[in-house]
Amino acid sequence: MGLTFAPGEVERLGLFLAMLLDENTRQNLTAIRSEEDAWERHIFDAMTMVSVLADLPEGSKIIDVGTGGGVPGLPLACVLPKLEFTLLDATAKKTTFLARAGAALGLSNVSVVTGRAETIGAMGSPHRRAYDAVIARAVGRLAVLSELAVPLAKVGGLCVLVKGARADEELDEAKKALHLLHAAHAGTVETPTGRIVVLEKLRETPKSYPRRDGEPKRAPLGVEKGKA
Questions:
Q1: Which domains does the chain have, with CATH numbers?
Q2: Could you count the other beta carbons within 10 Å of the beta carbon of residue 169?
Q3: Residue 59: other Cβ atoms inside 10 A
Q4: H/E element holding 9?
């Protein structure tokens, strides 16, 4: 992919994987068990997002929604040290591990938040419209994910979402949701591991979104019941 790494970055990525696979013996963070698969499915997959994020200005704020074991946020923080990353997950046991991993990796550009996207994206939250980019991988279909991600982005900010072969189908399904959220499809980037769908936030998100915890997944915006 034409990526080059600064001294120590590959070793830091390897340390992250070692910590992830070790912690996975105590709590379920990833279905991947082998080191070889982890390099491809976690590190390489995360690196495919660099081309979209690398042009953001120094100090830009990025939040990784539903980060789980820290992918893609922690690997990206390792190689994009001039950007500020927030790792969001609803499970305290996972965020405790993420804080420990970030400290062990010496990442001063990483912070960790325990909570749900519906809660921290609501009106009155300091996280609402606070981020230059919102990233996510394997969190849900675009009709669901857009409601969780768009409220967190600044106007003019991006949602950079890793998807698979059905990205076009999901985009078609999410048309009404994007309209309601005042966002638009800005482009799709083909990568060796899938597709990255980029959304742009055009105007402020209406106050009624995101809906309460669990509602976006239970009844995705603009999707007829039974078709989600």
A1: 9-218 (3.40.50.150)
A2: 12
A3: 10
A4: helix 9-23
